[in-house]
Amino acid sequence: MENEYRHPEKKENKSLKPDNERRPLWVSPTGSIILETCSEFYKQAADFCIAIAEPESRLEQFHEYKLTPASLYGAASAGFDAENMIKYLKMLSKTDLAPEIVRMIEKHTENVGKLALYLKDGSIIVEGKSVQAVETILPYVRDVVLEKLSDKSFKIDQYKVEQVRQKCREINYPLIEVYDYKNDRTCPDLGIKLSPKAQLRPYQKKSVDKIFVGGKARSGVIVLPCGAGKSLTGVYATVRLGKPCLCFANTAVSVDQWVSQFKTWSTVGDNRIQGITSNTKAFEVNLKADIIVTTYSMYGYTGHRSKDSEEIIKVIEGREWGLILMDEVHMVPAKNFRDAVARTKSHCKVGLTATLLREDEAIQDLEFIIGPKVYEANWQELVQAGYLANVKCFEVLCPMSKEYMREYLKLYLPCGKGGSGGFNGEDKKSVQHTLCSSNPNKLMVCEYLIHYHEQQRDKIIVFSDNLFTLDQIGTRLQKLIIRGETSHQERTQVIKKFKEANKGFTVLLSKVGDTSLDLPEATVVIQISSQGGSRRQEAQRLGRVLRPKPTKDKYGVVTGGEA
User: Fold this and answer.
1) Nearest to residue 170, comparing CAs of 73, 83, 26, 301?
2) How do the domains of the chain map onto residue ranges?
3) How confident is the model at residue 10 (pLDDT cuts 50, 70, 90)?
4) 3-state SS of 375-421?
5) What is the pTM for the complete model shown?
6) What Rg value do the Cα atoms of the chain yield, rounded?
7) CA-based nearest residue to 380, from 54, 53, 61
8) If 35 and its partner were Cys, which of 63, 139, 262, 351 is the partner (CB 3.0–4.6 Å)?
9) The CATH number of the domain covering residues in 392-559
10) pLDDT over 80 at 16, yes or no
């Protein structure tokens, strides 16, 4: 290797340190960080990088990270100060640290901790460490200030918290939501513990440790791969905080699963936890339960409610919660979900997800709705440690049958030249997608894979976003289907059969199965159709077979040229 580091954008030469071979990091003036996995200090350097930067890619020999304002804010809010960030970067870098990096770190961390946001006596308070900090932000948020309490604090509209956090972030005075839970005498104590069977893995404990800094709880997002034990992590966070918890899940089935997880991993009694869905009647509900689990859609619904639902929501909104625990938190940026969070009084918010990906840019809003990302696990390390399966992925290309190809090509021809008329742009895309999804050659491959793996006694999930194709396969092979219209009772029965089957078994899922269906027994996933390049969906479906098992395969069956 040449004894210089030439950055392609700056065209500057950076002399390598004499002992550069022992140092694992290349740090670019633009904030890119390359970590060499062969380094003897890889583990320490990887932990450091994930704490202060966003992971971009993880190849076998190199990992790439990116320093961003959000990542630096998250690190600083978790107690990592600028001095130590710079110190460790200098220590681990093969070259001298560029002045731009030092300035970037100092700029985006200097004001972290100067402003705090907290709930007190039902009101949202913003408090500064100094008069100067408060005077700096007041001109930007004055229209939502309800009352000035002192030179260092003021009360704001609870429905404008997201707006205030965003304004403060724009002027580089980020708000940290803190909760002095140990000294809170108004919010009752839960008094529950982890059950003896709950064996925390190191990364689960580490992720929750990031929430609790300096004896206080801070709101934030934890990212763990599918199969890495998000449920136990959420239960542990609840137990450790020791205050009443409102837990949001994605579906009615996942509400049942979360209630079961709380009972399995903690000492909470049946009379202290309550699951609530849109079908729950008021007389069936213990609204004084210390832990309530409900769905985003039920709580965030803005249309006409039944009398029972109105009564339930009114009681939940009127309570003061120690913790809001949000599963599949990448869904929260949706308008009705974020409004639901805004109108709920809580001291601390913790979001859980397997992937911080949305195909829009709204994922960035989580910082203002909940808080910064505080921890993200490296799935490759979890695989190496045996916590996750080493999945084999195959893409099976299937030629389109002549008849289907003829109809497919007609969609591109004008009506007078043998083309298919009467389709607008969206209809044409829909027909094209259906032709690709239901390509007979593709379905034959799917049928073969199902028969093969059922003979191996595998438990198989077949995903198809195209409902026509899903029904075709289900009817032809007589397989059970879970789709949007499937009732809660039917879903529960199908999941029970899948889990208890002692031989090869197959269930067909539409995209409703992407999240919040706990099917750890699955050993094979076959994907017939998808959202066309959605990274989040691919990660979630792959996660269905990430729990360690003897067999773990994922097939993407695509029409040739479709991918």
Assistant:
1) 73
2) 4-109, 115-179, 185-384, 392-559
3) very low
4) EECCHHHHHHCCCCCCCEEEEEEECCCHHHHHHHHHCCCCHHHCCCC
5) 0.84
6) 26
7) 61
8) 63
9) 3.40.50.300
10) yes
